[in-house]
Amino acid sequence: MRILIGSPVHQKPEILVLFLQALERLEAPDVLPDYLFVDDNDNPASSQWLTDFADRLPGRVLPPLSGLQQYENRSNEHTHYWPPSLVWKVAGFKNRLIDYALQHHYDALFLVDSDLVLHSRTLCRLVETEKDIVSEIFWTRWQPDGALLPQVWVSDEYNLFHREEGEVLSAEERAHRELHFIHQLHVPGLYEVGGLGACTLIRRRALEAGIHFGKIPNVSFWGEDRHFCIRAAAYGFSLFVDTHYPAMHLYREADRIKAEQLLLTLNGIITQDTANKDDQKASLTPENSNISENSPSNTASKSPEITIPSDLRDSAVFAKHAADSFVVPPAFSGPRHSELHAPPVSRPKLTLSMTVCNEADRKLAEVLRSHREYIDEAVIIDDGSRDDSGELCRDLLKGIPLRLIRNERASFTNEVELRKQQWRETLASSPEWILNMDADEIFESRFAQAVHALLAGTKADTLCFRLFDMWSPTHYRDDDYWQAHRYYRPFLTRYRDGFPYKWKEQYLHCGRFPDNVLELPSEISDYRIQHWGWYTPAIRTSKYERYQQLDPDARYGWKEQYESILDPTPRLSLWIDPGQDDVNNKHEAESGDTASVKSDVNTGMNIEDTTAENKIEAIHTVEAVQMANAANPVETAPAHEFINPTNPVNTSAVAKIAGVHAIIGSRTLTKGQIEGALYREGKGEEQGMACKLCGSSNTAVFHRYEHFTLIGCGSCGLIFRNDVDRIQPEDMIADIYNVKWVAMRDSAAASTYGDHALFGLMLLDMFSPGKGNLLEIGSGTGEFIHAALQSGWNAVGIEPSIDSRAYAKYKYDVDLLPGYWNGGDTETETETETETETETETEAANEAPETEGDTALSLDHEYEAVACWHVLEHIADPVAFLTDLREQLQPDGTLYITVPNKNSFTNEAYGAHSPLFTEEDHLYHYSEHTLTRLLAKSGLRPVALFTRQLPSGLDALIEVHPLYGELTFTERMGLLAKLQGEKRGHELCCVAKAI
Which DSSP string do the residues of 561-630 spell out, in sequence order? Predict the structure, then answer.
């Protein structure tokens, strides 16, 4: 396939060189592409860059077409200026490129603006789509304080919302649809849009049809791309955007700096790869064959080399340097017509199907408000209500198509007939997707913004979810009798005309869907559902009496579970909704407070927190995972059906789902989540203790270990030791960071230096380019201080461990100061300890002992940089610690922090038994959110915040992760890039400055 890459160029030299570097790295589908530029530069240096590019690629860069080359002030640091004369001048350039491609019989023309940095896989990906006209997405902040917006749109000049013909939208609904479209574009995929530009592959079929960028006389839309798109639609060509490999748009100076860092990183990796190959060749020469087997370098060389494919490496680097491109604003006011961009494909129709009976005074209002955010229509059976349930449905779903069917007599005593009626009435509305929910069931808040992307992106016909039986406004029941949340059941199905749907013919517990719905292709998702059918004592009493009447012999249920309904001391777990600031706000009981928790279950209850924030949730069992991999799916029970653990997979119990896999747009299921379901500790006095970060009393036990207990905060997500106020970290440090720990570090000296010390040095080079005074707290075995000294910093480090300091002196000839950081000073040991330490260090390093004068610190705002790598998690009073460090910085100084990432793949894989949680000296476990909040309390703000996941150890994590199984090398590296982009890496890295 012959491809011509064309670009009109009127560009600053420093931008153009980055654009050309990225072009040179593009992978070609089969035949190498040709390049044709329109040289419209008024800066000779830019023209010279084009000449140099042609010299590097002889025979592939065609002689440039000439522009007018007049001086034009097109931009400043805030925005770019595009008067009409300039717009149509560029349109003429693009038409010349189209003419050239046609005359010289190219199969496709790739038009790309000269202020973009492309991913190396961009061109290949656009070709793979096999679309006549397709763009790769990029995001731009058109105003310095504005939202990041795409260069594709839905309709008109720049509508980012879908609207049916004649449909009138409120401002609220328009904003909701705009936000949905933007969220959709952040999910890798291929989407049909109404307009696009700036990075577009046009195949010959479209070129021959006559599309071009000329002005349409009777259209007043701004911008040549809009006229191109209208013309394409008129010729019958659909427009598409691919979102797998977003480009970087160099719109401002800050973007250029990011792009420089990105390309330097990529080029540095390539150089390093070449050097590694040369080193490997050199290691095979005779003069290198006698290296001692015990030398550290030889030991390190035995480690297997991991080569990351270039496309996955690019993805990881792009994700790191353009991370804010993936942050979707919580609200969107809409762009101006002069902002170049485009919209979505029509979304699947979602029909809510429900039965109600006397629900007006319960959760029905909250349920309907929740559903109306994302449904397109509703079908509701009012099954003999004696209250205002039907009218409430009409009022709360006003503006949404509603079919409300009234049964004068309640028929729920014969559930299968009611469910069949509900199914028939729903099919009468010609549904595409059917969401079958009871009147007391609510999805967690994050579902609303993700559901349509979920439906648009799945090939399955049935989606299954977990349901949590809420036993109070804030807690769900979790014991041997109540395990619905450990299993997956269908709540969403795509109607397939011609499929032989069959019902379970029993009058109670027949299932909300036909019995064989899971014979269709099925997937599971970890979006959770709250079932509010048990959350007050009155409701439980009423249901207990009902089941005694309808099923006295427990023919359709489980007798022991019936009897447990009124258990005065049930085992409860804290519900946490990561989409809300405070879970209590959404789940207030009707009484208006949380007193019902205590009146409902007495002080003998056992409450524990199985999650905080996105990663740690309440959970499914090993049996659920086994069932997820089983064949011949059968499921009949309703979502809150009774489950007998002695027969967990019989046909009247739970789903066995064929072909199940994790939904990437949602979240994966983890062994850690399985283990989290097995937390079985008794009641704890820690319940309700104040969070050390936000002060909330919405806390509960996260997990009890042999020697300590972790507490989770339901409001901010922080996890911390319950005894943090009584801990003496110095004692733990002395016990843990001893000779054995130093020996472990020595055995991995090369990786420690390369993966950590040099990484820290790279951060300094990026954010503190003016080398000066550097202070490191917790220097360990001295690698970072040695690297900093070698690179020109005036560096000093503090390390409390005697053995670590001795090793640093022996290995790197680095003198580390003894003591602990304590309120802006170093806390020295007693005289006896100092003497003992001196003897140890003298013996190890054969050096004179340190004197007090040698270790005195000048702490008068002298430091350009302060670093504490993996220290903050050990600090009992982190606010005081960070405040002290802030005071040691120069006015424009920078603080560098790394901590274990609470939301890491490591924790996701191992759950509560993750090595990050089980480390006794880890007093706090921070996420991106909690670390940012901690910095703010300490008078600091993050200027960079990202995570890091090294390839080493990834295989072990994948092995314990139940849903990944065996992955190919490419899949493993793809996962590595995904973790980096989603901030799920093992290590949370932060660069901060004083507010």
Answer: HHHHTT-SS-EEEE---TTSS-HHHHT--TTSSSHHHHHHS-TT-EEEE---TTT------HHHHHHHT-
Which stretches of 747-812 are assigned E, i.e. beta strand? 773-777, 794-798
539's tokens? 């409701």
More confident position, 436 or 264 = 436
Buried b (16+ CB within 10 A) or exposed e, 471-509: bbbbbbbbeebbbbbbbbbbbbbbbeeeeebebbebebb
Residue with tokens 């580390």: 816
In 3D space, the residue among 562, 401, 539, 413 whose CA is nearest the CA of residue 470 turns out to be 539
- Helices 224-234 and 84-103: crossing angle, nearest 10°? 50
Q: For residue 931, what are its two tokens?
A: 């670390």
Amino acid at 506: Q
Measure the CA–CA gap between 350 and 345, rounded to whole angstroms.
15
The phi-psi region of residue 809 (left if phi > 0; otherwise alpha if psi is between -120 and 50; otherwise beta) is alpha
Q: Name the residue among 385, 387, 425, 379 with its Cα closest to residue 409.
A: 385
393-397, 770-774, 938-942: lowest mean pLDDT where?
770-774
Sign of torsion, CA 415 416 421 423?
A: positive
- Round to whole Å and give the CA distance between 346 and 578: 29
If you average pLDDT over residues 718-738, what whole number do you get?
76
Q: CA-CA distance, 540 to 556, in Å (whole number)?
A: 19
Listed in sequence order, the residues at least 6 apart from 557 whose beta carbon sits closer than 8 Å to its beta carbon are 508, 509, 547, 551, 642
Identity of the amino acid at 770: G
pLDDT single digits (tens) 287-312: 333 323 333 333 333 334 444 455 56
What average pLDDT does the structure give for the chain? 75
With both helix axes pointing from N to C terminus, report the angle between 783-790 and 802-812 in degrees, rounded to the nearest 10.
40
Q: Measured between alpha carbons, how far is 89 from 79 in angstroms, rounded to an integer?
A: 20
Q: How far apart are alpha carbons 137 and 660 in whole angstroms?
A: 30
In this structure, how many other beta carbons lie within 10 angstroms of the beta carbon of residue 316? 24
Helix (H, G, I), strand (E, B) or coil at 261: helix
Q: What does the DSSP assignment read for 384-439?
A: S-SSSHHHHHHHHTTTS-EEEEEESS--GGGHHHHHHHHHHHHHTT--SEEEE--T
Q: Up-side HSE of residue 196: CA atoms within 13 Å toward CB? A: 27
Contacts of residues 793-796 at CB distance under 8 Å and 24 or more positions apart, as own/partner, are 793/764, 793/865, 796/857
Give SS3 for 106.
Answer: coil
- Yes or no: say if 601 and 570 are a contact pair by the CB < 8 Å rule: yes
Enumerate helices (H) and strands (E) in the chain, giving the number of each: 34, 33
Residue 645 above 80 pLDDT?
no
Tell me the CA end-to-end span of the chain in Å, nearest whole number: 55
The dihedral built from the CA positions of residue 778, 781, 784 and 790, taken in this order, carries a sign that is positive
- Residue 716's CB is within 10 A of a number of other CB atoms, namely 23
pLDDT at 643: 34
Rg, Å, the chain Cα set: 32
Exposed/middle/buried for 165, CB within 10 Å: 0-12, 13-18, 19+?
Answer: exposed
Hey, what's the torsion of the CAs at 255, 260, 266, 268, to 10 degrees? Answer: -160
